[in-house]
Design goal:
Blueprint lengths: L1 E4 L2 E8 L2 H17 L3 E6 L5 E8 L1 H7 L3 H12 L2 E8 L2 E7 L16 E3 L5 E3 L4 E8 L5 E2 L2 E10 L5 H12 L6 E2 L3 H32 L3 H7 L1 H16 L5 H30 L4 H11 L1 H20 L5 H33 L8 H10 L14
Antiparallel strand pairs: 1-2, 2-11, 2-12, 3-11, 4-9, 5-6, 7-8, 10-11
Length: about 375
């Protein structure tokens, strides 16, 4: 199971016996140690679990004027960790954690170096009011799907993404066929989100296409308009390459937004071209005039969309990287779709619009029939 939480990845190997699981996960830990993108790999497995028990002599502590709370706080701070306060930097709040160096809290003798204060403020060795002894305990080992499991936890260094970590562990696990593992936690959400966003992107394309088909009462015009979507997606991917980002959940959300932005440019040209055809213009004349007259609205709306993405790119703070990814996709996608829409849509409209009737052609035929005039020649055959 690979889980991601707070910049870390957990790999959980499942099996029947702990020694067999350990044989599988030890090479995985060695590979994580050799990976420069990962830090602090650690296992939650201990074959034996010695425990150091600290017993407080309450009578002696009371005689010396040492509160039990002070002793507990000293042990918590020096041998565990304690949140002291928080501070704010560049709009983000950070915890201040008190903890002694690991080298000074590894052995029982380190207790002799710890002091507490008496009621009059004099320092007193902690060993004067506590006694210690070592006892072997059974480790607490949780199971996953009723199977024994060992977890390998690693932290990710800056610049190393969760997707890269998941791919790294998948490649390492593939070297040991038959290993039973699962993906859960944030990594499971990461993988599920990728599939969900991909489905959402496909549904967005279908929905936009059906809405356009209903609006134009044609299957051809929506196809011409939707040809701008791949161009916008290509521009968004180019933006990710320039920014050094990856195709992740946030960038896929940006691609979904681009569907509407790219379709907007095509709608402006096709709608106006249809109106010109209603006035009796040929397809070629209509699309050329439409592209020239709609140039200014297309550029203005595209600049607005690209400018709206700039705050997402430039603003930092908490969640800044995710917002930057969305903004980069929208900015470059809007620019690319605008530059190429002015060429792609007129070309394909000129090629495919001949298989549709202009929206007002039927009305003109009916009016000509009622007036006793011969029906105007159809400018194109009809394939709706």
């Amino acid at each position: 199971m690979v889980a991601v939480a707070a910049g870390g990845v957990d790999v959980i190997i499942l099996g029947d016996e702990y020694p067999d699981i350990e044989k599988v996960i030890r090479p995985l830990m060695a590979a994580a140690l050799a990976n420069p993108g990962m830090a602090r790999p650690r296992l939650d497995y201990e074959p034996t679990s010695p425990r150091l028990l600290v017993a407080l002599d309450r009578d002696k502590a009371a005689q010396l004027g040492v509160p039990a709370q002070s002793i507990g706080r000293a042990l918590e701070t020096m041998f565990g960790s304690r949140k002291a306060t928080t501070y704010v930097k560049t709009g983000q709040e950070y915890d201040v954690i008190l903890q002694t160096d690991r080298a000074n809290r590894m052995n029982e003798s380190d207790l002799d170096n710890l002091y507490v204060r008496t009621a009059n403020g004099a320092p007193l060795p902690l060993s004067s009011v506590v006694t210690t002894h070592v006892r072997g305990d059974t480790p607490s080992r949780e199971r996953v799907d009723r199977l024994r499991a060992i977890t390998l936890s690693v932290q990710l260094n800056p610049g190393y993404t969760v997707g890269q970590a998941v791919g790294f562990f998948q490649a390492e696990l593939a070297k040991s066929p038959g290993v039973n593992y699962k993906w859960g936690g944030s990594a499971r959400d990461f993988l599920e989100a990728n599939g969900a966003v991909g489905l959402a992107f496909a549904m967005a394309l279908v929905l936009v296409f059906l809405v356009l088909a209903a609006q134009f009462e044609s299957w051809i015009h929506p196809i011409v308009i939707m040809l701008t979507v791949p161009v916008a997606a290509l521009g968004g991917l180019f933006g990710l390459l320039i920014a050094g980002s990856t195709l992740n959940t946030y960038s896929q959300i940006g691609l979904i937004i681009l569907v509407g932005i790219a379709a907007k440019n095509g709608i402006l040209i096709v709608e106006f071209a249809n109106q010109l055809r209603d006035e009796g213009r040929t397809i070629r004349e209509a699309v050329i005039e439409s592209a020239s007259l709609r140039l200014r609205p297309i550029i203005m709306t595209s600049i607005s969309a690209a400018a709206g993405a700039l705050p997402l790119i430039l603003w930092g703070g908490a969640g800044g990287e995710s917002r930057k990814t969305i903004g980069v996709v929208i900015f470059f996608g809007a620019i690319f779709s605008t530059l190429l829409t002015l060429f792609i849509v007129p070309v394909f409209y000129n090629l495919l619009a001949r298989y549709t009737k202009s929206p007002g052609s039927i009305s003109r035929s009916i009016e000509a029939y009622e007036g006793g005039e011969p029906a105007p020649a159809a400018e194109e055959s009809v394939f709706r």
